[in-house]
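Shape matters. Shown next:

___
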Amino acid sequence: MIISQYSSALEINEAKGKKVIYNLLNHSIGMIRAASYAEAEQGYALQLPKDDLSVLIDMDVLVEDKKDDREKALYYTRKSPFSNPVGYLTILTCLDCNLKCEYCSQKHFMNGQKMDATRSESIAAWATNWIKSNHLQHITVSIIGGEPLLNMSPLNIILPALRRTGAQITVNVVTNGVLLDTEMVKKLVNLNIEKVQVTLDGDATTHDQIKHIRREGTFQTILEGVERCTEAGLEVDIRINYPKRKKEQATNALRALRDLKNKFRIQVYFSEVQTEPFFCSNEMANIIPDFYEMAYGMGFSIPGPFGSLLCQAESDHGFTIDPTGVVYKCYNSVGMPHQQLGEIVDGRLMVKYHAVLNNHPILDCLSCKYFPVCRGGCKHMRQARNLAPNTRMCGYDNYQLAEQRILPLYIGSLLRKAVK
């Protein structure tokens, strides 16, 4: 037997003398001796020392040959959307915001709507039935807006209902961070929310020009909110935006975070404003690893550079719900009438357009190492560009760069955090 072609073998400083194996199909991680890895590559996996063999078996990375490896990837690609015990809910509590960022991708549908108690109860009833009837075991809930902290009351109805199902519920909130005062952080803790994401727009000077309230900057206010969250035990993701070809604003923003406490609870990632999504732009991909290496050196955690075999839009158990109960498959589709799945009415999902449920993985890409995390490109991007469902959108060079330069930092930060 051999190790799956959909695996990365890394040598990192935190695990000297070992090969760290990361499987792109199931995202399992394990460490074995470097000599054992060389033997496994030659097809002698079953002859390895017992402890190393046990690691590979537990990771589920051993296959008979390359042909069977591709068959396995094809099997899980077809199976996962319909037999996954994990559900994904993205809930927009309001279409309102306390900031007016010029580049905001949501400004075309920001109308001030807020989810009311009646709608919250209807969504809670539907979600309860959805979890139980599909025997879901784990639900990842993302709370977004607009600015979701402007309307927290739906969470007092929806989250307890989800938890009463007995499923494991993981909740994160995406916020601009301006409202993270002491009282708000207490509310998040009381709601058992585990993670908060905030965004900084370049360095302090640039950020305060973009995100201000009555001409008062918000950069320092957000950093103070981050400190309150980590001190309360919450994980924090900080997204640093920077304008096109002005990477110094990202590095300056990162330097401004140097004195934050509890860096092991803070994950930093970067995004160029008004460009393609993560790792779709070659220019962007060439710059981003430098940022992550700098962040890692400062003690911050690094996010995993690869998505799972299944994104929310492709999962049969993934939904985005706006404040009025309209349902989409992808949060990037909110506000696009032709991308609606349907609407939740009186605790029931009334499906409107079944076309958005269909998936079209590009099977010609099966022989590519990065097929499990790419599958030929983003479904939403193909739809947004009116491309045929079988149009391939290859990002091989960018995924390779992520594997070589960012994946080792991600693994290293996991090991470093385990020590904490």
Q: What stands out?
A: The chain has a mean pLDDT of 89.
